[in-house]
Every structure is written in structure tokens, then in C-alpha cells.
């Protein structure tokens, strides 16, 4: 099972800060994960926004990266500063 | 070092403990940031600060390392609130100590500019009319850009 974490304004749409989900076989990288979530949940454009950064196991990713069903994947909107 | 504090932040107590570990430094600069009541979206009644479990502290540590590489500091301290805050609660405390004042002033200014623009926090203002996630202002980015001699802007502020 993969752990998905949402931060900041994303939680207003997702309704939760984190969830544990089983990834279907065709969801093998961050790009397909975003498409799967946006399509399945009706979150059009929410996670594919170029300003939303993706973090896999606490490493920020600038490009699509392969993911596994045991990974922790975070979605970070622009930070708000302190 | 624990940078993030979920409970009340006490600048006076932080300064007292900081003074115990700065050796013969002749200069201490401190900055305390407080929650303002007035904001663009109305009168703020409370503020919520969210951090990332790893990246927030990692980023602050990197900024501190940069400050120490850039200026001859005897010591520095960053404390930042997370969670729910009320109006006028201290939200950030930065202290720097150096042999002479200039390095201490500059490093404290640099660290605050980092905290205001790049630090990994998400900030939600609660007003009488609702809630709003807030992002850094253009002036915050301009302040930050002073340290790297460029006019880089943030494309994600619109």
C-alpha cells in the first residue's frame, strides 16, 4: 500500500492530509499516479498543476519517477513562508 | 536542533538559553515575528501553520549552514511555530551571534528572508469571513533576491 500525503491548500479539495491506497498495476510512476487520482477523484488539474511539487519518500522530484506500492508520495503546493 | 515548536514560543527564554552558548561574541541580533491582526483578506482571528515532517527542518538547516558559511557567526538559532496561533503570538524567532555586529545583522536578515519565502510551511489565515491559504508577497521575494543578486521571481504566486 502506498501512503499519499497532501499539504496546504490541496487538503481543502482532498479532504484529508493523508491516505493509504493500493496502487493499480498501471500506476507505476508519478505521472500515472497523478492521472489516476485526478481522473478517479474528479481532481482535474489539482495535482498536475506545474506549481505542485511531488515528493517521493521525502525526496523532491523534478521529473516523473517510478513508484512502488510501498512508497510515501507527497504533493506540495507552493509554500506559504513563515 | 529542534526548529519547530507546536506550543507557545517564548522569545525571552530562547534568548536567555542562546546567550549561554555564544562564548565571547560581542554582538547578538534577534528577530521576533508576530501574528498580525490585519491582512489582505480581513482581520485575522487565528493562523494555522503546517510543516512537512522532513523537508521543513532540512531546509532550515540548509539555510543555517549557508549563513554560517557566508558570515563568521559564533552561533545561530531558529525557532518557528507550527499549529494554531492567535493574534500577536510569536511565530518566529531568529538569533545570531558574532564577534562584530555586521555579520550578526546580515545573517539574521538572511535567515528571516529564507523563512518568509522558501521555508516549507503552509499558512492558513482564519478571518471572520472564512479561511484562506496565503503565499509569500512579491516584496518577500524581492527581499530574498537581495542575497543572490538576481531578479528571480516566483511563477507560482499568481
What report would you give on this structure?
The complex is a heterodimer of chains A (about 80) and B (about 160). Chain A is an alpha+beta fold. Chain A has two helices and five strands; from the N terminus they run βαβαβββ. Chain A is globular, with a radius of gyration of 12 Å. The mean pLDDT of chain B is about 90. In chain B, the strands form two sheets. In chain B, strands 3, 4, 6, 8 and 9 form a five-stranded antiparallel beta sheet that branches. A four-stranded mixed beta sheet of chain B has the order 1-5-7-2, with helices on both faces. Classes of the chains: A alpha+beta (about 80), B alpha+beta (about 160). The interface between A and B is medium-sized, with 17 and 29 residues.
Reported for the largest beta sheet of chain B, the result is: 5 strands, antiparallel
Number of helices of chain A: 2
Helix-strand sequence of chain A:
EHEHEEE
Oligomer kind: heterodimer
Strand content of chain B: 35-45%
Number of distinct helices of chain B: 4
Helix fraction bin of chain A: 10-25%
Low-confidence stretches of chain A: none
Largest interface: A-B, 17 and 29 residues
How many strands appear in the DSSP assignment of chain B? 9
The percentage helix of chain B is 25-40%
Q: Classify the secondary structure makeup of chain A into a structural class.
A: alpha+beta
Which structural category fits the helices and strands of chain B? alpha+beta
Range of strand content of chain A: 25-35%
Order of helices and strands of chain B: EHEEEHEEEHEEH
